[in-house]
Amino acid sequence: MVRGLGRYTGDVLLPGMAHLVLVRSPLPHASITAIDVSAAREAPGVLDVLLPADVADVLMPPTPNPQRSVPARFPLVQGRVLMPGDPVVAVVAESVPMARDAADLVLVDYEPVPVVGDVEEAMSAPPLHGETNVAYDRSKGDRERFEALPGPIRISGVVDHPRISPLPLECRISVADWRPDGLTFYTATQGPQLLRNELAASFGLPASRVRVVTGFVGGGFGAKFDFAEEDYLTVIASRRLGRPVRWEETRREHLLVAGHGRSQRARYELVAGDDGVIQGLWVDWLVDLGCRHRYLPFMSITPKLGTGVYRIPVYGWRLRGVWTNRSPRGIYRGADRPEAILTIERAVDSLAAHLGIDPAETRKRNFIPPDAFPYEVPSGFTYDTGAYGRALETLLAKVDYPQLRVQQTEARTAGRLVGIGLAVYTEVCGFENWGAARVLVNRDGSVDAFVETLDQGQGHRTTFAQLVASRLGVAVKDVSVMQGDTAATPGGFGTSGSRSVAQGGSAVDAAAGQIAAKARRLAAHLLEAAGDDIELRDGLAGVRGTDVSIAWRDLAAAAHNGKVLNEEPGLEAEVHLRSGGHNFPFGVHLAVVEVDRETGSVRLVRMVAVDDAGVIINPMLANGQRHGGMAQGIGQALSEAIRYDADGNLATASLVDYLAPMSLQVPSFELAETCTPTPTNPLGAKGIGEAGAIGSTPAVVNAVCDAIGRQDLQIPLTADKVWAAISQRVGERDL
């Protein structure tokens, strides 16, 4: 990548490749009364025009879950558009400019329908699907028991989690190449094996005749896990034309229709004693699903993680998912864990402020103690390991917390609005409970590792090569990691939920371990030594404590000859490794902010994180994940939000309006870590990819609330919003 040699899907150029462009609805909700494509069909370079009727027999996914009452999803709208940007017509031409020019000639008559916007209003609005806009309604807990709690402290609040865009550097892209012998599909996906299975089922092909190829990927964050309407259309168009067809998402399309993250509103009630010990928590969650289904089950993660790192005896919740005329809600880095943690951490900070107890002390009084693990939380999750107090103490010592509070007091005395925010998080990783890998030693001693997970910039190739090299005693440079091609890699779930090292890495390590065991047996025979005395290191298989050894290359050649110990020829192993369940990383983040009295602008002065992801294989890559996640969490706290106007149109259709943080808006991150291995996989590794995006947001929000003495602020904490809060406090003579 550094040398510019990485091959992305955008670099795939196939002979005869055509290009697909969408005609999208300019309205958020309307009936289609007529479509005229006659001029478009006659435009220069046009090869095909796909109408809704042409794809009415293609369901997405091909076999809807009968257990869920969800509307059918098609590659093009069927009679009614449900969001701005809904795909209405697809134009295929020799080039992108030709396709765009032809798309401009398509005439669509729309009959506007009232828009269903705000999630609370939507519950009583005319339904978009079926009989009601409430598509999902679940609850758990004993309300009477909660109401009977004796605690004198009862606080409540609302925590909004606005829609945000995943915003990878590389937008979505796909190239479909349908041939008589099968389909090859090039795309930037996070789950090539899952995608192959869906393509095969959707288009009536055996899986053996579908190949999905994913090269380098410029960021995913969940946006590239979904198989979208546009992907289906490229396959359909390629099948009709007998030519490869390519579609590439523009940045505006990404902001408009790619699955938005978060999109929740929480109303919480918390009961505690005068000592700050929490007795009960009740949360009512409303989720804006958008206009179609994507990942409905993921919603349940939020209430299951709702108590965070705290021992809360009584907990209850209600979770409702609601249809609106907005883009379908997708998964985004953290996928329903940040929403839970922001809510509980805002509630705990509000409790601390109400009682006048330091936020760090309030948290200490409520932590699940280390000797309670494995710990079953009231929601049903069983936390594997945790040492929250140790992580907090590590952070407090790192920043010299008492002195930091002294400095804050001095700043406030001088008239400056300085705030300090703490947040303690846990999350759940490892949803798919097994991983797969195949490791092959070539005759010359070089090693190929084939993995079912794949990276979108995280550096998995390096991590997996390290694991293999460590097991076999060879150099990392002699290990090649193959990923993203279903013709070569084992079946699996791909990359999501920070599962890659815990599941995929454990499988790689186990496969390399099987090869190492066989190599020791062969070396012991050739060197006339005991197997337990053989060690693999520095490209040699040697007898421990002696100079007697055989070169790894020679050992590999002997293995391939198949004439040693009657063993099968070669050194190869494939492992499908089942894990011991979910793992729960955790950590503590601290933010220091200064708020400008005159403008309300927030300057992030300091950002410190102590994360615990169990055993870390590559600290540099792990820290890179933490950096990226923290930047995204900071953006969510201070500036990022997908907004719609009163008519339901997207108001943040470009990066001029959708404000992602830039490098000058984040400080140099200060990182430390603790290590609490998990027993759920052989490596003891937990997920690290989402940690930064989960812990940073509540830390920044708590810091701003601390700075201005308000506990009711809602993200993003833009300058105008903060300035209004300051002005109100000044009017009340509190600030």
Describe this structure as you would to a colleague.
Helix 11 (388-399) packs across helix 12 and helix 13 runs parallel beside helix 14. The longest helix is centred in the C-terminal third of the chain and has 28 residues, at 500-527. It contains 18 helices and 28 strands. The chain has 735 residues and is of the alpha+beta class. It has three domains: 9-113 and 171-217 and 224-257, Aldehyde Oxidoreductase, domain 3; 338-429 and 582-731, Aldehyde Oxidoreductase, domain 4 (2-Layer Sandwich); 434-578, Aldehyde Oxidoreductase, domain 4, CATH 3.30.365. The relative contact order is 0.11. The mean pLDDT is 95. It starts with 17 loop residues before the first strand and ends with a helix. It has a seven-stranded mixed sheet with strand order 3-5-1-12-9-10-11, sandwiched between helices. A five-stranded mixed sheet has the order 7-15-14-13-8. A four-stranded mixed sheet has the order 18-26-27-28.
- Please count the beta strands (DSSP E, at least 2 residues each): 28
State the name of the first-level CATH class of the largest domain.
Alpha Beta
Q: Indicate the overall shape.
A: globular
Secondary structural class: alpha+beta
CATH architectural arrangement of the largest domain = 2-Layer Sandwich
CATH superfamily of the largest domain: Aldehyde oxidase/xanthine dehydrogenase, molybdopterin binding domain
Largest sheet, strands/sense/barrel: 7 strands, mixed
Helix content: 25-40%
Number of domains: 3
Q: From the alpha-carbon coordinates, what is the Rg to the nearest angstrom?
A: 28 Å
What proportion strand? 25-35%
**Uncertain segments of ≥5 residues (pLDDT<50)?**
none
Spatial strand order of the main sheet: 3-5-1-12-9-10-11
Mean pLDDT: 95
- End-to-end CA span: 51 Å
